Structures are given as C-alpha cells and as structure tokens.
Amino acid sequence: MYAVALWLICQVVDVIYVELGLPEWTLRFVIVLGLLGLPITLILSWLLDLTPDGIVVDGGASKTRATAYRPRPWDNIVDCGLVFAAMFIGIQLGTGVLSTEAEMVPTRTQVIAVSSFTAASGQMSEDLSESLVAELQHELTKLDGVIVVAPQDDYLAGVGKTLTGCVVLSDDHARVTVAMTDHESGEITWSGVIELPRTDLLQVSVDLAQEIVRALPQPYRLASSPEENHAT
Predict the structure, then answer these.
(1) Alpha helices, DSSP H only, in the chain?
(2) Domain spanning 110-215 has what CATH number?
(3) Which of 36, 64, 133, 211 has the most C-beta neighbours closer than 10 Å?
C-alpha cells in the first residue's frame, strides 16, 4: 500500500510541479522523502496490528490469533487491486516505460547559420574572417541536433539563429567578438569574446572556431573536447 501510494503521489507531482512553478528537483525530493519513510513504515507495520478494535501494538502470536482480523469481502477486492497495481508498477519499471519527461521528449533540432565576419584590421583580418566562417561551419556540423544552413537559406525565415562577429588582428593576438542573433525575434541571444595568441592564419582560424563552439550556450556546445583532425 505504501509503494502504491508513493507511486501515485510521484505521478501527480510530475504532472503539476511545472504548472505550480516549483523547482525541477521537486520530484526527486518527493522520491527521497518516500524512500526515507519506507523503513519507518516497515518498522511500524512489524510492531502494530490491525484488529476489529483498531490499530494495536503487536502482542505476540497468541494474542494475534485471539484477535485475528477477519477480512470482509471488499477488503479482498482492495487487496487484489493493490497486488495488480504493484505488478503493473513492476512491469513498467522493468521495461523502462516509466521515465522522466526529459528522457521521453526527443532532442529538439536547432538551426544555425554562420554569416560573414567583419574584418577590422586590414587584409589579413579579411582572410582570417573568411577562413573562420568555414571552420565554424565545420565545427558546428559535428554537434548532435544542430543543422547548419547557408545564411540566405529560406529555411531561416522566421526560425533559427545566425552567428556573426568581428575579427581583429594585432601583432601577437587574434581577437573575435561573436554574437548569436535569433531570426524570429531579432534579439541577440548570446555574445562572447575570444582572444588567442596569433599563429599562422590556418591554425588560428581552427583554434578560434573550436573556442567559439566551446563557448556557445547549450545546445550549440560540444559535450566534450576531443581532439579533431583537420584535412590539409
């Protein structure tokens, strides 16, 4: 009865906690409380008996036989219902049907385009900005659930985001100010600044692209930072 009641409470909490504005850990909190209460329930059920006179302290085998509880017909129906409910819960848990809402909802596909970067410091900056666009497109295609499209693609009409920015080269550093724009609202949803020591243009564009992708907000971010091989 305790397990069935806890399961029902968890189902109700899972449905209503979002609508009530409760934090995401509410369901986990209820489950932990329920598990902590289980040993207390087992101890009380061991020490107490249900008799026609109500709940009494277990007086041993002789007294239990003398005051044995005689079940009524509807008690048998309730007991059978609880058994079937427990079996149903066990089957759900065994087959993985019970899962959190986050696990059941498929990963949402994100659409992004990489627009031209502005060059703010001469011809070498222009060369770096062109190379950076290609490297960013390459890095973004590695992300699961992300579709990379051309900036002029009609698919971006009203949906998706565009990544663009400004490239500045100094004698010893390369600096990129990058921003992500939402096409539906026109709002800049994220921006960042990446600065790295200047090396040859090919390597610095690769390093900048990887650092930008690592800095992006979820879900436009690599879950890990594996070493990548770039064709020459």
Answers:
(1) 2-16, 26-47, 61-66, 73-95, 101-104, 123-140, 201-215
(2) 3.40.50.10610
(3) 133
